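Open question from group meeting: does this chain pack into something compact, or does most of it stay loose? Before anyone orders reagents, we agreed to write out a predicted structure and look at it together. Recording both the input and the output here so the notebook holds the full record.
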Amino acid sequence: MTTTEDSIVKQVRAVLENEPRVNLHRYPVGVSVSAGGVVLEGEVESVAAKKRAMRVAAAIEGVRGVVDRLHVAPAERRSDAEIRDALCAFLLAEAEFRDCSMKVQVKGRAETLRDLPGTGAGSIEVAIDDGVVTIEGAVISLSHKRLVGVLAWWTQGCRDVINSLRVEPPEEDNDGEVIDALGLVYEIDPVVRHDQITVICHDGVVTLSGAVPSEEERERAELDAWALFAVDEVVNHIEVRHVG
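C-alpha coordinates returned:
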Protein backbone atom coordinates (compact mmCIF):
# COMPACT_ATOMS: atom_id res chain seq x y z
CA MET A 1 0.00 0.00 0.00
CA THR A 2 1.35 3.41 -0.95
CA THR A 3 1.63 6.33 1.47
CA THR A 4 -1.33 8.00 -0.21
CA GLU A 5 -3.48 4.87 0.03
CA ASP A 6 -2.51 4.39 3.66
CA SER A 7 -3.49 7.99 4.37
CA ILE A 8 -6.89 7.52 2.70
CA VAL A 9 -7.55 4.33 4.70
CA LYS A 10 -6.72 6.13 7.96
CA GLN A 11 -9.00 9.05 7.04
CA VAL A 12 -11.86 6.73 6.16
CA ARG A 13 -11.46 4.82 9.41
CA ALA A 14 -11.44 8.11 11.33
CA VAL A 15 -14.68 9.40 9.78
CA LEU A 16 -16.36 6.04 10.25
CA GLU A 17 -15.28 6.02 13.89
CA ASN A 18 -16.95 9.40 14.36
CA GLU A 19 -20.11 8.55 12.42
CA PRO A 20 -22.89 7.91 14.99
CA ARG A 21 -24.69 5.34 12.85
CA VAL A 22 -21.60 3.24 12.17
CA ASN A 23 -20.63 1.20 15.23
CA LEU A 24 -17.17 -0.09 14.31
CA HIS A 25 -16.71 -1.80 17.66
CA ARG A 26 -19.75 -4.00 17.24
CA TYR A 27 -19.67 -4.14 13.44
CA PRO A 28 -16.09 -3.87 12.15
CA VAL A 29 -15.85 -2.53 8.60
CA GLY A 30 -12.96 -3.50 6.36
CA VAL A 31 -11.38 -0.55 4.54
CA SER A 32 -8.98 -0.86 1.61
CA VAL A 33 -8.02 1.07 -1.52
CA SER A 34 -8.07 -0.22 -5.08
CA ALA A 35 -7.20 2.00 -8.08
CA GLY A 36 -7.96 5.11 -6.07
CA GLY A 37 -11.33 3.83 -4.94
CA VAL A 38 -12.19 2.91 -1.38
CA VAL A 39 -13.55 -0.59 -0.77
CA LEU A 40 -15.85 -1.01 2.23
CA GLU A 41 -16.78 -4.53 3.29
CA GLY A 42 -18.37 -6.27 6.24
CA GLU A 43 -21.67 -6.09 8.06
CA VAL A 44 -23.30 -2.97 9.47
CA GLU A 45 -26.27 -2.45 11.74
CA SER A 46 -28.79 -0.92 9.34
CA VAL A 47 -29.47 0.45 5.87
CA ALA A 48 -28.81 3.90 7.35
CA ALA A 49 -25.37 2.79 8.57
CA LYS A 50 -24.58 1.32 5.15
CA LYS A 51 -25.51 4.49 3.27
CA ARG A 52 -23.86 6.82 5.77
CA ALA A 53 -20.62 4.83 5.58
CA MET A 54 -20.66 5.11 1.80
CA ARG A 55 -21.44 8.82 1.89
CA VAL A 56 -18.76 9.89 4.38
CA ALA A 57 -16.10 7.75 2.68
CA ALA A 58 -16.92 9.27 -0.72
CA ALA A 59 -16.59 12.79 0.71
CA ILE A 60 -12.91 12.38 1.61
CA GLU A 61 -10.50 14.28 -0.61
CA GLY A 62 -8.64 12.02 -3.01
CA VAL A 63 -11.27 9.26 -3.03
CA ARG A 64 -12.27 8.57 -6.62
CA GLY A 65 -15.14 6.23 -5.80
CA VAL A 66 -16.46 3.79 -3.23
CA VAL A 67 -16.99 0.07 -3.81
CA ASP A 68 -19.92 -1.16 -1.75
CA ARG A 69 -19.38 -4.59 -0.23
CA LEU A 70 -21.34 -3.82 2.92
CA HIS A 71 -24.27 -5.93 4.04
CA VAL A 72 -26.79 -5.30 6.80
CA ALA A 73 -26.77 -7.66 9.77
CA PRO A 74 -30.38 -8.93 9.93
CA ALA A 75 -32.28 -8.89 13.19
CA GLU A 76 -33.21 -12.49 12.44
CA ARG A 77 -31.12 -14.86 10.35
CA ARG A 78 -33.13 -16.78 7.80
CA SER A 79 -32.37 -19.21 5.02
CA ASP A 80 -32.51 -18.04 1.42
CA ALA A 81 -35.63 -20.17 0.92
CA GLU A 82 -37.39 -18.48 3.86
CA ILE A 83 -36.43 -15.01 2.59
CA ARG A 84 -37.56 -15.92 -0.93
CA ASP A 85 -40.95 -17.22 0.23
CA ALA A 86 -41.61 -14.20 2.46
CA LEU A 87 -40.65 -11.65 -0.20
CA CYS A 88 -42.66 -13.39 -2.91
CA ALA A 89 -45.69 -13.38 -0.60
CA PHE A 90 -45.22 -9.62 -0.13
CA LEU A 91 -45.00 -9.02 -3.88
CA LEU A 92 -47.92 -11.26 -4.84
CA ALA A 93 -50.17 -9.64 -2.24
CA GLU A 94 -49.31 -6.03 -3.12
CA ALA A 95 -52.01 -4.43 -5.29
CA GLU A 96 -49.49 -2.21 -7.10
CA PHE A 97 -48.00 -5.34 -8.73
CA ARG A 98 -51.18 -7.31 -9.48
CA ASP A 99 -50.63 -6.84 -13.22
CA CYS A 100 -46.96 -7.88 -13.15
CA SER A 101 -45.64 -11.27 -14.13
CA MET A 102 -43.42 -12.74 -11.43
CA LYS A 103 -40.65 -15.31 -11.37
CA VAL A 104 -38.25 -16.52 -8.71
CA GLN A 105 -34.89 -18.23 -9.04
CA VAL A 106 -34.80 -21.55 -7.20
CA LYS A 107 -31.52 -23.49 -7.36
CA GLY A 108 -30.55 -21.75 -10.57
CA ARG A 109 -33.88 -22.36 -12.26
CA ALA A 110 -36.60 -19.75 -12.86
CA GLU A 111 -40.01 -20.69 -11.46
CA THR A 112 -43.09 -18.77 -12.57
CA LEU A 113 -45.29 -17.43 -9.78
CA ARG A 114 -47.63 -15.40 -11.98
CA ASP A 115 -47.78 -15.35 -15.77
CA LEU A 116 -49.57 -12.40 -17.36
CA PRO A 117 -48.35 -12.23 -20.98
CA GLY A 118 -49.17 -9.13 -22.96
CA THR A 119 -50.35 -6.96 -20.06
CA GLY A 120 -47.54 -4.43 -20.48
CA ALA A 121 -47.45 -3.91 -16.72
CA GLY A 122 -44.01 -5.39 -16.32
CA SER A 123 -42.27 -8.44 -14.94
CA ILE A 124 -40.32 -9.02 -11.75
CA GLU A 125 -37.74 -11.74 -11.15
CA VAL A 126 -36.27 -12.36 -7.70
CA ALA A 127 -33.15 -14.26 -6.66
CA ILE A 128 -31.67 -14.71 -3.18
CA ASP A 129 -28.05 -15.60 -2.46
CA ASP A 130 -26.75 -15.64 1.13
CA GLY A 131 -29.42 -13.14 2.18
CA VAL A 132 -28.72 -10.77 -0.72
CA VAL A 133 -31.84 -10.04 -2.77
CA THR A 134 -31.37 -9.36 -6.48
CA ILE A 135 -34.35 -7.99 -8.40
CA GLU A 136 -34.46 -7.89 -12.20
CA GLY A 137 -37.05 -7.28 -14.88
CA ALA A 138 -39.08 -4.19 -15.70
CA VAL A 139 -41.82 -2.11 -14.07
CA ILE A 140 -43.90 0.85 -15.24
CA SER A 141 -42.55 3.57 -12.95
CA LEU A 142 -39.71 4.60 -10.67
CA SER A 143 -42.15 4.50 -7.74
CA HIS A 144 -42.82 0.83 -8.46
CA LYS A 145 -39.09 0.13 -8.68
CA ARG A 146 -38.55 1.80 -5.33
CA LEU A 147 -41.50 0.02 -3.73
CA VAL A 148 -40.14 -3.40 -4.75
CA GLY A 149 -36.82 -2.50 -3.13
CA VAL A 150 -38.47 -1.42 0.12
CA LEU A 151 -40.49 -4.64 0.29
CA ALA A 152 -37.22 -6.53 -0.07
CA TRP A 153 -35.67 -4.56 2.80
CA TRP A 154 -38.77 -5.25 4.92
CA THR A 155 -38.27 -8.99 4.48
CA GLN A 156 -36.80 -10.63 7.58
CA GLY A 157 -33.31 -11.98 6.94
CA CYS A 158 -32.51 -9.66 4.03
CA ARG A 159 -28.87 -8.53 4.13
CA ASP A 160 -28.76 -6.39 1.00
CA VAL A 161 -30.83 -5.43 -2.04
CA ILE A 162 -29.53 -5.17 -5.60
CA ASN A 163 -32.33 -3.45 -7.47
CA SER A 164 -31.66 -3.84 -11.20
CA LEU A 165 -35.25 -3.28 -12.34
CA ARG A 166 -35.67 -1.28 -15.52
CA VAL A 167 -38.40 1.31 -15.88
CA GLU A 168 -40.32 1.04 -19.17
CA PRO A 169 -40.93 3.50 -20.63
CA PRO A 170 -37.88 5.21 -19.07
CA GLU A 171 -38.51 8.06 -16.61
CA GLU A 172 -36.19 10.84 -15.54
CA ASP A 173 -35.57 10.66 -11.80
CA ASN A 174 -36.04 13.73 -9.65
CA ASP A 175 -36.90 14.83 -6.12
CA GLY A 176 -40.63 14.62 -6.84
CA GLU A 177 -40.28 10.97 -7.84
CA VAL A 178 -38.65 10.18 -4.49
CA ILE A 179 -41.42 11.98 -2.58
CA ASP A 180 -44.10 10.13 -4.57
CA ALA A 181 -42.44 6.77 -3.90
CA LEU A 182 -42.11 7.39 -0.17
CA GLY A 183 -45.76 8.41 -0.02
CA LEU A 184 -46.65 5.11 -1.68
CA VAL A 185 -44.53 3.20 0.84
CA TYR A 186 -46.13 5.01 3.77
CA GLU A 187 -49.60 4.15 2.46
CA ILE A 188 -48.90 0.41 2.67
CA ASP A 189 -46.79 0.48 5.85
CA PRO A 190 -49.12 -0.59 8.70
CA VAL A 191 -46.91 1.14 11.27
CA VAL A 192 -46.84 4.62 9.70
CA ARG A 193 -49.70 7.15 9.58
CA HIS A 194 -48.58 8.94 6.46
CA ASP A 195 -51.02 11.83 6.77
CA GLN A 196 -49.06 13.11 9.78
CA ILE A 197 -45.68 13.25 8.02
CA THR A 198 -44.34 15.88 5.63
CA VAL A 199 -41.62 14.82 3.16
CA ILE A 200 -39.13 17.10 1.40
CA CYS A 201 -36.41 15.84 -0.92
CA HIS A 202 -33.45 17.68 -2.43
CA ASP A 203 -30.69 15.96 -4.38
CA GLY A 204 -31.22 12.59 -2.72
CA VAL A 205 -31.55 14.01 0.79
CA VAL A 206 -34.95 13.35 2.36
CA THR A 207 -36.15 15.53 5.24
CA LEU A 208 -39.07 14.31 7.36
CA SER A 209 -41.17 16.47 9.66
CA GLY A 210 -44.49 16.27 11.49
CA ALA A 211 -45.66 14.51 14.63
CA VAL A 212 -46.41 10.86 15.42
CA PRO A 213 -47.62 9.17 18.62
CA SER A 214 -44.72 6.77 19.15
CA GLU A 215 -40.97 6.40 18.79
CA GLU A 216 -41.58 3.16 16.87
CA GLU A 217 -43.50 5.05 14.19
CA ARG A 218 -40.89 7.79 14.05
CA GLU A 219 -38.10 5.26 13.53
CA ARG A 220 -40.11 3.25 11.00
CA ALA A 221 -40.86 6.36 8.92
CA GLU A 222 -37.13 7.08 8.78
CA LEU A 223 -36.22 3.48 7.96
CA ASP A 224 -38.66 3.48 5.04
CA ALA A 225 -36.94 6.56 3.64
CA TRP A 226 -33.46 5.06 4.00
CA ALA A 227 -34.64 1.92 2.20
CA LEU A 228 -35.56 3.86 -0.95
CA PHE A 229 -33.37 3.43 -4.02
CA ALA A 230 -31.21 6.57 -4.67
CA VAL A 231 -31.82 8.14 -1.25
CA ASP A 232 -28.41 9.02 0.19
CA GLU A 233 -29.37 10.83 3.40
CA VAL A 234 -32.37 11.12 5.72
CA VAL A 235 -32.91 13.98 8.16
CA ASN A 236 -35.59 13.11 10.70
CA HIS A 237 -37.34 16.08 12.33
CA ILE A 238 -40.47 14.10 13.22
CA GLU A 239 -41.62 14.74 16.78
CA VAL A 240 -43.17 12.17 19.11
CA ARG A 241 -46.30 13.48 20.79
CA HIS A 242 -47.99 11.05 23.14
CA VAL A 243 -51.74 11.37 23.35
CA GLY A 244 -53.55 10.92 26.67
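Observations to bring back to the group:
Residues 80-167 form one domain.
The chain has three domains: 3-72, 80-167, 189-240.
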